[in-house]
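Quick review question:
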């Protein structure tokens, strides 16, 4: 049984070596054919694949950063919304206990309150839900 495992291991090692040789040979062939045809190096498929790998890595990093920024933005908006709600409740309580009327919100104050109320839905629309999947490279 041990000899069979050793043979299989040797076969896998040979296969890996063969694949590495084929990859190097293909790269060399691409480089030579690009040079012979007078094409720029950027049109070399091997170079294009390497560039694509770098671009994919940068894309994944950016997706991860976008996810972190969106989470921080949501946390900030939740905090602002909670604080604003507490202040509004406090004002209402003070109005009721002191019999003092507070002037209604000005137009700009009302617009700000409306913006805060709608900010959460806008945040979730701006960041695609599969940003995490993109960051992990599953697309």
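Suggested answer, residue by residue:
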């Amino acid at each position: 049984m041990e000899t069979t495992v050793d043979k299989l291991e040797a076969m896998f090692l040979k296969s890996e070596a063969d694949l590495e040789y084929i990859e190097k040979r293909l790269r060399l062939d691409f480089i030579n054919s690009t040079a012979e045809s007078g094409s720029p190096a950027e049109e070399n498929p091997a170079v294009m694949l390497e560039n694509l790998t770098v671009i994919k890595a940068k894309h994944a990093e950016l997706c991860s950063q976008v996810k972190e920024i969106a989470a921080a933005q949501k946390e900030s908006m939740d905090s602002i919304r909670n604080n604003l709600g507490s202040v509004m409740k406090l004002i209402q309580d003070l109005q009721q206990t002191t019999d003092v009327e507070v002037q209604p919100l000005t137009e700009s104050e009302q617009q700000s309150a409306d913006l805060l109320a709608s900010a959460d839905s806008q945040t979730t629309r701006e960041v695609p839900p599969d940003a995490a999947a993109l960051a992990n490279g599953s697309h």
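Why it works: Helices lie at 2-37, 45-98, 107-126, 131-135. The first helix runs from residue 2 to 37.
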